[in-house]
């Protein structure tokens, strides 16, 4: 006889409990030290005013999908501004309700089109989920090892491979070897999908992202950029920047664009203003990079990196006790565990914020010993 559904829930519950994979949300009121609001733009007065004005003028909700009643003109303004900011207008941008939706749609489409897709082993869940329905072969390559892809293609020659990677990795804050990956897609007539979720606003001299940092041009025929307004831009929503015709295909087929309600005007206006603030004031990016350099040197003994994402490595119990120490002082710095990071690579994900005051700095120095992580 088949199990009744209530027993299946019991079994699922127990399995999760035994594997220690229950997730707990933090209580409200703690100050997060893992926030993605690197530039503090979610509290920027210009961004807040723009959002309030749009809400007063146009209402709180989008009222429908962009294909029904939700296609507010701010969508167009935002995609144009995004394309301009990220690629000097070279690519066509599409706005989605979240970065997750944007990645899911982009990687699903490209996976359907390509016979072979490579994905970095530390890619974000939204990129992984996009590959689930891939028709061709899927190869997960060791983190940042472009040579692995080269060797694979030498042994299994295949034109039109797609390589999917984050640019600034969300958990370890390291950069993908984009120049080497780009060379591969040039050589094999492939396509490089770059998730700029964390690089936008933080990376490159003016925060335009990893291409700017590495001095690489945006090439619409070979690159698709994805990203989000929810991190350094302090708002909500995702974007994809790609070749104009590919954008038309995505716009006509992406289920996460067609079958969901569009972003509300207040959110679109906030994202748009955040881009303006950033475009007009590169000093805030530099200030973030200065602060990040200090903490990379302090925590990792890395005097080169200006990444605002700094992993604090260590064994799980020690990390937990450091995390608990922060909590006693009102700060939240959780231990990130599998499957968000690979097994055995638990870490505290410290993200630098330009709004940090001397209390935060002092607490960090108290609980994070310099240079060596938190090994016992
Ligand atoms: C690398 C990466 N890509 C995509 C996303 C999804 O972005 P959003 O939060 O806008 O859905 C995230 C956020 O968690 C991320 O870290």
Describe the structure.
The protein is an alpha/beta fold and 376 residues long. The protein folds into two domains: 45-280, 3-Layer(aba) Sandwich (Aspartate Aminotransferase, domain 2); 282-367, Aspartate Aminotransferase, domain 1. Helix content is 43%, strand content 14%. It is built from 14 helices and twelve strands. It has helices spanning 5-18, 45-58, 73-87, 99-113, 125-130, 146-155, 178-187, 210-214, 244-253, 255-258, 265-280, 283-300, 316-328, 358-367, and strands at 31-32, 92-96, 116-120, 137-141, 162-166, 191-195, 223-228, 238-242, 309-313, 331-332, 335-336, 347-351. The strands form three sheets. Strands 2-8-7-6-5-3-4 form a seven-stranded mixed β-sheet, sandwiched between helices. Helix 2 (45-58) packs antiparallel against helix 11 (265-280). The termini are far apart. The model has no long low-confidence stretch (mean pLDDT 94). Bound molecules: pyridoxal-5'-phosphate.
Give a brief description.
The chain is of the alpha/beta class and 376 residues long.
Assign the CATH topology of the largest domain: Aspartate Aminotransferase, domain 2
Number of strands: 12
Bound molecules: pyridoxal-5'-phosphate
Describe the global form. globular
Structural class: alpha/beta
Give the full name of the CATH homologous superfamily of the largest domain: Type I PLP-dependent aspartate aminotransferase-like (Major domain)
In the sheet with the most strands, the strands line up as 2-8-7-6-5-3-4
- Secondary-structure arrangement, i.e. CATH architecture of the largest domain: 3-Layer(aba) Sandwich
Radius of gyration of CA atoms, rounded to a whole number: 21 Å
**Helix content, binned percent:** 40-55%
Main sheet characteristics: 7 strands, mixed
Distance between the termini: 52 Å
- How large a portion of the residues is in β-strands, by DSSP E? 5-15%
Order of helices and strands: HEHHEHEHEHEHEHEEHHHHEHEEEH
Query: Poorly predicted ranges (pLDDT <50, ≥5 residues)?
Result: none
Highest-level CATH class of the largest domain: Alpha Beta
* Average pLDDT reading: 94
Number of helices: 14
What's the number of domains? 2
